[in-house]
Design a protein that fits this description.
The chain is built from two helices and 75 strands. The strands form 18 sheets. Strands 19, 20, 21, 22 and 23 form a five-stranded antiparallel sheet that branches. Strands 44, 45, 46, 47 and 48 form a five-stranded antiparallel sheet that branches. α1 runs antiparallel to α2. Helix content is 3%, strand content 49%.
Length: 878
């Protein structure tokens, strides 16, 4: 794995706890992709064979006769469709030379002779059909300004169901004028992954986090814009369900229980005269599929027609290695290992395999045995700890279904079944170790709302004892052998460091002592005389520890270099452990990592002409922001190998660039009207400090000034700074907030309703706010009067809809210099809406200004409406 087990599960649990918005930005920015193998497994999960070479596979389908596989292979900024025969021979069905097009999401026709796929070209998403033998040319059957994903092809060949960015699915007739009609499946009409049954009478789909089935509406009015149903939906999944698939005879439906680390579930179905009966879902096996931070609106698995073989893109495994004090290594095992812990006598290692089972392995021979297995579809093992005598292993499992942690105790020899000791409040916590008397375990959980340190008694019904709560800044803490200190990693000071902290008899945390710069994996020698950890540049470090008369740490010294295959952003906490005398290190080394796609900044004028490409290509993140006069650009650069974000300022006229700030918690930034200052947001996810809005001079002079501290349970994004400098608009969980800078600096919720708001922009005179809302589905642009004195919107009658055909994202729009224009982005182009504010606001129909760069990403517009900046795939300009 590329992320510490319990951290990754925190991300999985986030939707359950309302934390996803706070965590998703960091997860996305630091997500490290992995190569996967297209793997055929049987109904028990046993590997049968792999197909083709490893690649970044993101969507796949199996032909109706089970003889071919179609897959989307992602490369850099684009991707192509490949076909694989049963012998593993691969053919690139759809290829293009620029590396910008993303030909993706292939689905076979009912006869297996054609494939439909999506492709983004010239800013327009299209559905294309091509013969699998490569003959003839491709045919575009539908196009849209919104990204589309084909989901299924009806057995009679008449319809293709596809999903688009509105959140709806559509039925595309392949005859006639090919006008799509909306497939209304979910309670709010939104659904995904609709699969038409083999007999064409039913459709299984994902809506509201579960799998449902109902009749597929083959009869429809020629003038109807939506599809009507003559039956009610029947729920298939019980707790959670994603990505449904049918067996070839229509008698079984399969789905996964989670996006990552889910189980394949099987449900027997029996059609009746007017409905369909479904049996209780049965778990088959762990998919071992991992979603590495990319969207999941594609198919994550496929199934053979007889339901006996499943095709899953499984990531390349980790290598569990053993290193001596000179750095010489040997391979212990190759599998999806995580959180390895060496036994007290140094002869064995306990580790989590694929988040579903716990194993013990002989350190000399590599022989392994399973000592614990989780059976719940939404149970995930996250942390292990050895007993002091080495006879037992405790482990924590997160149950996503209830949002709690469960403690298990297993015999290290695997002779008896593990005991479930207790379930308690916590989400993906970490076991720090057994107390010296062996009667309790210390447990630590780090969440956005704060940290919790518990002592959990193993015997009787005694409740866990809370030792500490609040902001500790600790990451991956480890308990000393005498139970009186914690060694841990922290980045609370925006710098990776290792510290030691006394732990009192009643659990109070003492004054911490700094060890040195380090990336984590702090652990102890058995006698407590040394601390080991990963240094700032992947060195394996040691430092002596003296506890009398006071705690003192010796000068750190390097022992050897750790494998450079481990990127810094992958995290070292939970990746390795050291044996009792410090003579051996056990480390889970991730496989090779695909190169990150390189993007560049492109500044264009009102005609779409590129007028500047400031800086050099790199791994940009967030949203590039162009100053109100269009002369400067602020952009974030991600350095995942160094676990840091950088904020750069580019002066377009002077042709200069300046590194303004380095901060791993950077999120978003906006310009002052005169272009001399920037506001930026820094969100600390590992402490209780919340997020802060800081003001900084754009020329780098002075120090950042904290203007506002945000403690809400969700992240937020800065989106506008008013022309007079009085107001800041930010978005938090789909709510539009206004912060007055010349007053008490208390945010006011401007728009909060059942609809989500993505962007907001005040007019130059602060009389109006323009914003995007999904009230209409798709998202559109609206204008509403604003009272700057009351910090309130006007009456609902003064709310004006500016667009009707959608305002797609990533959205970039701004006011014209005279305040009479709103520009926005949709259908691969930039549009302008002229506004008249005399006698009540009114708007003219939108007009297109220009088509934006191919495959352009996040963007922003200057307030004067003369320039835009985009992230776009890097072009070799040599």
């Amino acid at each position: 794995m590329t992320t510490h087990q319990w951290r990754l599960v925190r991300l999985l649990a986030a939707p359950l706890l309302g934390l996803i918005s706070a965590l998703s930005l960091v997860a996305t920015a630091h997500a490290q992709p992995r190569y996967s193998n297209l793997t055929w497994v049987d109904r028990t999960g046993k590997v049968i064979e792999t197909v083709g070479a490893p690649g970044e596979y993101r969507g796949l389908d199996v032909s109706p006769d089970g003889r071919r596989v179609a897959a989307h292979t992602h490369t850099g900024a684009g991707g192509d469709v490949w076909l694989f025969e049963r012998n593993g021979e691969g053919t690139r069905l759809v290829a293009e030379a620029t590396g910008v097009q993303d030909n993706a999401h292939p689905i076979f026709s009912p006869d297996g002779k054609r494939v439909v796929y999506s492709s983004l070209r010239d800013g327009v998403s299209g559905l294309y059909i091509k013969a699998v033998d490569g003959s003839g040319s491709e045919e575009r059957v539908h196009s849209s300004g919104r990204a589309m994903v084909p989901m299924s092809w009806s057995p009679d060949g008449r319809f293709i169901v596809f999903w688009d960015q509105t959140g709806f699915e559509w039925v595309l007739p392949l005859a006639g004028d090919r006008t799509p009609v909306r497939l209304i499946a979910g309670d709010n009409g939104q659904s995904s992954h609709s699969q038409i049954s083999p007999d064409g009478k039913w459709v299984a789909y994902n809506a509201g986090g579960n799998i449902w089935v109902r009749r597929f509406p083959v009869d429809q009015s020629a003038t109807s814009r939506t599809v009507s149903y003559d039956s009610k939906a029947v729920q298939v999944s019980v707790e959670n369900g994603l990505f449904p698939r049918w067996r070839g005879d229509g008698r079984e439906i399969y789905y996964t229980s989670s996006v990552s680390f889910g189980m394949i579930m099987a449900v027997a179905v029996t059609p009746t005269a007017d409905s369909i009966e479904v049996a209780k879902p049965q778990p088959l096996f762990d998919t071992e599929y991992i979603n590495f931070g990319h969207p999941s609106n594609y198919h994550t698995f496929a199934v053979s027609p007889d339901g006996q073989r499943f095709l899953i893109p499984r990531p390349e495994p980790n290598t569990l290695v053993v290193l001596d004090r000179e750095g010489d290594s040997r391979t212990l095992d190759i599998d999806n290992w995580g959180d390895p812990h060496v036994s007290p006598d140094g002869s064995q290692v306990a580790a989590i395999r694929g988040n579903r089972s716990v194993w013990v392995m002989d350190l000399a021979s590599g022989d392994r045995r399973r000592i614990g297995k989780l059976s719940g579809p939404q149970d995930f093992a996250v942390s292990v700890a050895w007993s002091r005598d080495g006879k037992q292993v405790a482990y924590i499992a997160l149950d996503l279904a209830i949002g709690k942690d469960t403690l298990y105790l297993a015999n290290a020899d695997g002779a008896t079944a593990p005991k479930q000791l207790r379930t308690f409040e916590g989400v993906g916590g970490q076991l720090l170790g057994f107390t010296p008397d062996g009667g309790s375990l210390l447990y630590f959980s780090s969440q956005v709302a704060g940290d919790t340190l518990l002592r959990i008694p193993l015997a009787g019904d005694a409740a866990p004892v809370e030792l500490a709560r609040g902001s500790t800044g600790m990451l991956g803490p480890r308990l000393s052998p005498d139970g009186q200190r914690l060694a841990y990693h922290t980045n609370a000071n925006n710098k990776n460091e290792i510290w030691v902290r006394p732990l009192g008899a009643t659990g109070e945390l003492g004054v911490p002592v700094r060890v040195g710069d380090g990336l984590g994996m702090a652990t102890w020698r058995a006698d407590g005389s040394e601390i080991y950890y990963a240094g700032p540049t992947r060195e394996f470090m040691t430092a002596s520890v003296r506890t009398s008369p006071t705690l003192a740490i010796g000068a750190p010294r390097r022992l050897f270099d750790l494998p450079d295959a481990i990127p810094v952003a992958a995290g070292f906490d939970g990746r390795g452990d050291v044996n009792a005398d410090g003579s051996a290190v056990v480390l889970a080394v991730p496989p090779r990592i695909p190169p990150l796609p390189q993007t560049e900044l492109r500044v264009v004028d009102r005609t779409g002409k590129v007028v500047a490409t400031p800086g050099k290509a790199g791994t940009f993140f967030g949203r590039p922001m162009i100053s109100p006069d269009g002369k400067k650009v602020a952009a974030g650069v991600s350095k995942p190998l160094d676990d840091i974000f950088e904020l750069w300022v580019f002066d377009l006229d002077a042709g200069t660039e300046r590194l303004l700030d380095t901060d791993r918690n950077l999120n978003s930034w906006i310009w002052s009207e005169d272009g001399t200052e920037l506001l930026y947001m820094s969100m600390d996810f590992n402490s209780g400090d919340g997020g802060g809005i800081f003001r900084r001079k754009a020329d780098g002079s002075g120090t950042p000034e904290l203007l506002y501290r945000h403690y809400a349970g969700t992240s937020f994004n800065l989106i506008d700074w008013s022309a007079d400098g009085s107001f800041v608009l930010f978005n938090s969980g789909g709510v539009l907030d206004v912060l007055r800078l010349d007053g008490k600096r208390e945010p006011v919720e401007l728009i909060r309703d059942e609809f989500s708001v993505a962007q907001g922009l005040l007019s130059p005179d602060n009389r109006f706010v323009a914003f995007t809302s999904d009230e209409t589905r798709p998202m559109n642009v609206w204008l509403w009067t604003f009272d700057p004195e009351a910090i309130a919107l006007g009456p609902a009658a003064e709310k004006l809809q500016l667009t009707k055909d959608g305002a797609g994202g990533p959205l970039s729009w701004g006011w014209g210099g005279n305040g009479h224009e709103v520009t926005y982005r949709n259908n691969g182009a930039m549009y302008s809406v002229a506004i008249s504010a005399s006698g009540g606001a009114s708007a003219e129909p939108p007009r297109m200004l220009f088509r934006h760069p191919e495959a352009a990403g996040a963007a922003s517009a200057s307030r004067n409406g003369e320039r835009w900046v985009f992230f776009a795939p890097a072009v070799d300009r040599r």
